[in-house]
Amino acid sequence: MNVHFEPIVGRYMHLDLLGRSHRIYVEEAGAGTPLLCLHTAGSDGRQYRALMNDARITARHRVIAFDMPWHGKSSPPAGWHEEEYQLGAAQYTTMILSMMSALELDKPIVMGCSIGGRIALHLALEHPERFRAIIGLQAGAHVDPYYDLNFLHRSDVHGGEICAAIVSGLVGPDAPEKDRWETLWHYMQGGPGVFKGDLYFYKIDGDIRSRIAEIDTRRCPLFLLSGEYDYSCTPEETLAVAKSIPGSEVTIMQGLGHFPMSENPEAFLNYLLPVLDRIGG
Amino acid sequence: MLEGLKERVNEDAGLVRRGRYLTTTFLLQSGDTSWLVSIFQGRIVSVMRGPFVMPSSAFALRAAEAEWAKFFLPRPPPGSNDLMALIRRRVLRPEGDLQIFMAHLRYFKEVLAKLRPAAGGVA
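ok -> structure tokens follow
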């Protein structure tokens, strides 16, 4: 029998966040400069599976991804069944900084996609001293709702089916079928209302347009990478962010969509590796 | 524009299976031209071209001819590659009972993607 194990190791961490006890799933692989990876709305840390399996990354980086509470293998906190989940900007920031402290990460590189890319901009503005560099994937300052978000969480529409169907066109046209559908599977597995609750941050509470120009890249380098086919955070929106932040470096990734690290890892690595070289050098 | 739609959908067993709980009629409009597409348990039973005096449908998808033309290219450009991309740009107007459209969104995306020359591309 021909089997092999990936070098990824997963553990469950117990910690208090905002006064509540949480059980959070954390995966990591590699050694070296910590690279903390933040997943998109309604998905989980598996989006970074290819990075954690690529020796070009892991030879020099300790790659870490955690599933946010309510996502993936992390549990919602006790009492969740009576609540409506909503991700807010302050809560999201606190979560990331708390995870960094708990994991004893000293000035990691943080890389986030979509909501993770948006919070990366918040971190660049409010906590630049905590990071060696910040990489925003599919990062825009704001997205107006363009469909009725209530469809993501109602009893007469299947949550898993609709979440994947909403985002399916955000995958770029060159994505290998296996990775396209793995990416969508993660969306199909989200808990009821979780994607919608994340989008509260993405489309309402996380609007950073009025403060974006205050980001000072002399305090922490900022790299922006966005896929050409992303119509959620469009290349134009990322270019507008870059234009208003002196010193930021922006790349539009041809043929890629909203989930570069998960939908087409090989193509994405061609863009990411030079950025990591720059940061490391 | 919708030539061959019925056959292409009905011969795709997986697509018909995914639509097996869907029975509805929707209207597709391209410029001044409309079609009524009737579906019974995931199979397309008729595609009727207008003009109609009193078209009756659960919901309608309306866009300009030029927008559908880009959408139906084998490799549509960014912003034209998906129904939600058209909706995001406010060039596709979904109207009517959109619960049916949203509850079967993957199905409707894949049905319309059948009209691309290289069907089976980006759904």
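Residues 265-280 of chain A form the longest helix (16 residues).
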